[in-house]
């Protein structure tokens, strides 16, 4: 598999990583995801990694940079379903993924994104919007 | 005429087997291992017979080198005996004496065999001493290794016992830490906590450090690692139970815990309930209600 599929669900994009990530795949994902966010003007990105068993510092950094790029495009990234072993590895590598929201599973991850979407629909301005005005 | 100690020894052991065995049994009976009640006399005699038979065969196969292939089965038997003694709680002296008490009977037998032939006697005694000392040392080595193994296992059991993860409510876990946190224990704690978060689908984990005697920079770092790993799994952490003195020490040391912290487990639990949209309410006493 040389591309990871990206699904659109309402205002959110869903990516489930079900193969071992290698570096090229990670770079392709970042590129596709960025293009997709811009095209669909999605407000949330859910990355589901419960099948991901092996991470290295590159994959960790890629998650951080996807989150940073998404934030620039006004979408919030939620990483869901991380395995305990993966979490321990990332912490030992010193990658604490600051700035990324995390959730135990897809359901809770979607709830986080929905909460943000409905908050904005209610007319509450998010912090960033206020700064821009 | 050159006297071969090994040959003399082997011959003596083969010919005078019954007498040596009796003397050895007698010596062991006098020793403390039987009196301690940890082993039965019949069992001891079985071991004696097995070991003696293998010593005889090993010596007959030639050589005095206790590390040689001829001694392999003997070494194994001795290792088994020594291992079981380490687990049964024998003293090192008892274990070593099992082999060393064979010396006197063999020396006596040599004396009887080679009455008057001083050169041969000296050679035989030297050969017997060499073999038995080596075997005794090997016995001790296995004994110590088994003890280390027992100690290591106990340490691991303590580490596992002292890191329970408790479910306080749906989606709220507590991790009461007791004892000093080192890197090995942090690893166990982290694994247990993360697995529990997955199993219980927890949203909030309360790490209670009432039982942690000291918090220095290293312990704080371990705590922060645990908190960070839990966050990656999508669970929030609250640290509770920091005693006043510890809080002072931490501030003086410049240790910063950038996590939500509460003084007591009860406070932390209240916060956790609030965050999950629940609260504890006092009900009116049933007696008053009925009136």
UniProtKB/TrEMBL annotation, chain A:
- Segments forming domain STAS: 1-113
Read off the Gene3D superfamilies from this record.
STAS domain (3.30.750.24)
* Top-rank taxon, per record: Bacteria
Q: Which residues form the signal peptide?
A: none
Q: Which InterPro entries match?
A: Bact_StressResp_Reg, STAS_dom, STAS_dom_sf
Q: Which Pfam families match?
A: STAS
Q: What is this protein called?
A: STAS domain-containing protein
Organism expressing this protein natively: Methylobacterium adhaesivum
UniProtKB/TrEMBL annotation, chain B:
What is this protein identified as?
STAS domain-containing protein
**Organism source for this protein?**
Methylobacterium adhaesivum
In terms of Gene3D superfamilies, this protein maps to:
STAS domain (3.30.750.24)
> Sorted alphabetically, which keywords does the UniProt record give?
Phosphoprotein
Q: Does the keyword Transcription apply?
A: no
Q: Which PANTHER family match?
A: RSBT ANTAGONIST PROTEIN RSBS-RELATED, RSBT CO-ANTAGONIST PROTEIN RSBRC
Keyword check for Phosphoprotein = yes
Where is the organism placed in the taxonomic lineage, from the top? Answer: Bacteria, Pseudomonadati, Pseudomonadota, Alphaproteobacteria, Hyphomicrobiales
* Pfam families for this protein: RsbRD_N, STAS
STAS domain: which residues? 162-276
Source domain of life: Bacteria
């Amino acid at each position: 598999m040389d591309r990871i599929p990206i699904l659109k669900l309402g205002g959110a994009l869903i990516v489930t990583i079900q193969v071992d990530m290698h570096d090229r795949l990670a770079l392709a994902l970042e590129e596709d995801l960025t293009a997709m966010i811009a095209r669909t003007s999605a407000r949330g990105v859910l990355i589901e990694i419960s099948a991901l068993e092996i991470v290295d510092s590159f994959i960790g950094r890629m998650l951080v940079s996807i989150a940073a790029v998404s934030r620039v495009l006004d979408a919030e990234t939620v990483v869901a379903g991380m395995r305990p072993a993966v979490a321990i590895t990332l912490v030992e590598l010193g990658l604490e993924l600051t700035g990324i929201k995390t959730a135990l599973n897809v359901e809770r991850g979607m709830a986080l994104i929905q909460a943000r979407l409905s908050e904005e629909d209610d007319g509450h301005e998010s912090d960033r919007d206020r700064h821009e005005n | 005429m050159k006297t071969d100690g090994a040959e003399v020894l082997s011959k003596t052991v083969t010919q005078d087997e019954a007498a040596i065995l009796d003397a050895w049994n007698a010596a062991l009976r006098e020793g403390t291992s039987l009196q301690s009640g940890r082993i039965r006399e019949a069992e001891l005699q079985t071991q004696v017979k097995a070991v003696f038979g293998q010593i005889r065969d090993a010596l007959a196969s030639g050589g005095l080198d206790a590390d040689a292939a001829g001694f392999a089965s003997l070494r194994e038997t001795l290792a088994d005996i020594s291992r079981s003694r380490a687990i049964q709680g024998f003293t090192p002296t008892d274990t070593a004496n099992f082999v060393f008490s064979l010396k006197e009977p063999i020396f006596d037998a040599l004396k009887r065999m080679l009455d008057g032939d001083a050169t041969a006697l000296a050679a035989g005694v030297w050969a017997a001493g060499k073999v038995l000392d080596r075997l005794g040392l090997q016995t001790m080595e296995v004994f110590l290794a088994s003890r280390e193994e027992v100690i290591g296992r106990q340490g691991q059991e303590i580490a596992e016992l002292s890191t329970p993860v408790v479910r306080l409510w749906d989606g709220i876990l507590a991790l009461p830490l007791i004892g000093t946190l080192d890197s090995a224990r942090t690893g166990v704690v982290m694994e247990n906590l993360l697995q529990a978060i997955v199993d219980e689908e927890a949203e909030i984990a309360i790490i209670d450090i009432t039982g942690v005697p000291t918090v220095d920079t290293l312990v704080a770092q371990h705590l922060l690692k645990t908190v960070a790993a839990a966050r990656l799994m999508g669970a929030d952490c609250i640290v509770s139970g920091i005693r006043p003195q510890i809080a002072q020490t931490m501030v003086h040391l410049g240790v910063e815990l950038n996590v939500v912290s509460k003084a007591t487990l009860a406070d932390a639990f209240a916060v956790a309930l609030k965050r999950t949209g629940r609260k504890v309410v006092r009900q009116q006493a049933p007696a008053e209600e009925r009136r």
